[in-house]
Amino acid sequence: MKRLIAPLATVSILTLLAACGQAPEDAAPSPEESSSPVASESPSAAPTSTPTPTNACAIDPARISLEEKVGYLFMMGRDTTAGPVDETYRLTMEENRIKAVVLLGDTTAGVDGVRGIVQGLDPNGDVLIAADQEGGQIQRLQGPGFDTMPSAAEQAEMSAQELTGGAATWGEQLTAAGVDMNLAPVADVVPEEVGTDNEPVAALERGYGSDPGAVGRHAAAYVKGMQQGGQLTSVKHFPGLGAVQGNTDFSADVVDDRTAQDDPGLESFRAVKDAGVDSVMVATAKYERIDPENLAAFSPVVIEEMIRGDLGFDKVVISDDMGAAAQVADVTPGERAVRFLAAGGDIVINGDPSIQSEMTEGVLARAKDDPEFEKSLDEKVARISALHEGSCGIS
Question: Is 218 helix (H, G, I), strand (E, B) or coil?
Fold first, then answer.
């Protein structure tokens, strides 16, 4: 997607590397400066009016078709190791009106190679391009021009000021590659007694620790740096995968039986929300003490009561993967998308392009049969419009 900050992204890689370690003057205070948990705010109700588009990058729900609206509700995966964008993938994008793509796979093509992939996906400059670039084992984009990023466990040893400076450089590198959005950071708090038995976070060194205050400060510092580097951000995996054992990507029936709606561990997400994060990603685990009937991504309690209400977050809510993840495999593709959107979510991440049409058709069918569901799409598209505005560098 076209960015107003694009000229900055053409700075040489030597300049980008030199920026590593330079900390902005207004960076967040270092973790050593405070050890107290982030203060809670009073819950606020979800917005009842549709935001109004304000610039050329905006999407006006009143001026686009139902099919176009539904296209904005998905972020489809593209394997960066699969070579140039092929005709099958391009047709899937066109037929489903897809306007957001997440780069999957671990590529070593470097900044120039990734930019070439992005140009094939987004020739008209109207597609939001995202990536998973957390650091450590979860750094999807590598090679010339990309620093080797430390893991979150290693980032936790940095001061918040140092982390903001590093994240700004890593964000600039993503921007230079044509990426608009980094699906990071992880704000999940892993209890000490769980430790590396936690497969999705601790075992992969994706977390900032077991103290909600410290996790929140580091995740917030990461967000500030990425935004300074030109990136949109998404904090994950609400309401936290720190207390589970299985990884929802590879295991079904992943259940958290300890996290409650008022859990102190959720304060890490509040800190990142207060730092201005652009979206919240919802986990697909089930939380027995929050909503024992639904996976979190299908739960109005999690999305409407907790994210919109308790957290007071009124921006875009994104799902964890609904395409290839084992946790949702027993739900039909169309129903996965419908349940997430009906629960209050905005963008469905689908890592399996082969089922995209099923998802799209499911949402279209529900919208045509349910006037209230169809009406809700306008608010979702308006929130997504604000996200697209951000990817254009508009404040």
Answer: helix
Every domain of the chain and the residues it spans = 79-391
Single-letter code of the amino acid located at 102: V
Q: What torsion do the CA atoms of 31, 35, 40, 41 make, to the nearest 10 degrees?
A: -50
Helix (H, G, I), strand (E, B) or coil at 3: coil
CATH of domain 79-391: 3.20.20.300
Q: Two tokens at 14? A: 């030597």
pLDDT in single tens digits along all 395 residues of the chain: 745 433 333 333 333 333 333 333 343 434 333 333 333 333 344 444 444 444 556 788 889 999 999 999 999 999 999 988 999 999 999 999 999 999 999 999 999 999 999 999 999 999 999 999 999 999 999 999 999 999 999 999 999 999 999 999 999 999 999 999 999 999 999 999 999 999 999 999 999 999 999 999 999 999 999 999 999 999 999 999 999 998 999 988 999 999 999 999 999 999 999 999 999 999 999 999 999 999 999 999 999 999 999 999 999 999 999 999 999 999 999 999 999 999 999 999 999 999 999 999 999 999 999 999 999 999 999 999 999 987 774 33
Angle between helices 371-391 and 333-342 (to 10 degrees): 80
What is the CB neighbour count within 10 angstroms for residue 132?
A: 17
One-letter amino acid for residue 118 of the chain: V
Q: Which phi and psi angles does 233 have, rounded to 5°? A: -135, 160
Is the pTM higher than 0.90? The answer reads: no
252 close to 326: Cβ distance less than 8 angstroms: yes
Distance CA 66, CA 51 (A): 18
> Alpha helix locations (H) across the chain?
6-9, 13-19, 66-71, 87-95, 110-121, 152-155, 160-176, 212-228, 267-274, 300, 333-342, 356-369, 371-391
CA distance 363 to 335: 8
CA angle in degrees (0–180, nearest 5) for 308-309-312: 65
